[in-house]
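[Meeting: bench + compute handoff]

Bench side (C.D.) handed over the final construct sequence. Compute side (W.E.) agreed to return the predicted structure before the next meeting so the bench team could plan truncations. Sequence as handed over:
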Amino acid sequence: MTERDANSRLEDDGASYMMSVSDIMSGLLFVFVITLMAFVLNFQQAQREAQAEQDSLREEQESLRALVSAYSGIEDLRERMLRELERALAAQGIQVTVEAEVGVLRLDERAIEFESGRAELSGQAGKNAAVIAEVLVDVIPCYTELDRDAAAARECSAETLGALEAVFIEGHTDNQPMMRQGVDQNWELSANRAIRAYREFAEVSPSLTELVNRDKQRIFSVAGYGYSRPLPGRDYDVPTADPQNRRIDLRFIMAPPTNDPEVIEALRGRGAE
């Protein structure tokens, strides 16, 4: 092989090598471009998903704020009703205790006093029960479901109508045992006290028994707790005839704001979690 042929061959090999490197670089550049494009597309998709999640969270927060606002309004209505009852009873000389945060109007021994071991309402207790019934029938109807004429006759506010779901007349006893055939009868006694109070209210103001909620269900019912729910600071370790624990509580349950579409959606979302 001549020197010229050798040089020519070296030039051909060099050209081939440069072409191979160029091909490799082109291939790497192509892979880089494809990878970059995939990264950009994935990043954009992640951004869209993050934005969608933020929008969803924002909507949920708005719904929950609406829910809190709705329930706050209900709590305000309940306290308004309880305070109205408290003032009306005080004007009649009957002192009661209001626990607005739990919706309770407490009729302790200042309002309705029970003799130990008995459920009868006699003497001043019976007279006070009659006054309480008259106050209840004067205030409560505007918080129940009334027809248009009845609501207009009472000049009820539209915001209060249908707000009340139920009223529990709750009977309580002190912690003195009342044994009969080996069974403590305090549960029965507390229930009988609640029933006696309900019947007294119904006898004085029969229309109370006809009051209904949004679902056309009557609002009044009774419950007996025995001595299982003593007043704060009056939970004794030994049998004690405490008249303050022999009481009637009226517990007012307000209707949830289920007619609000935002609230319904919020509740559904919370339930799906």
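W.E. noted at the follow-up: The domain at 77-254 is CATH 3.30.1330.60 (60s Ribosomal Protein L30; Chain: A;). C.D. will use this when planning the next construct.
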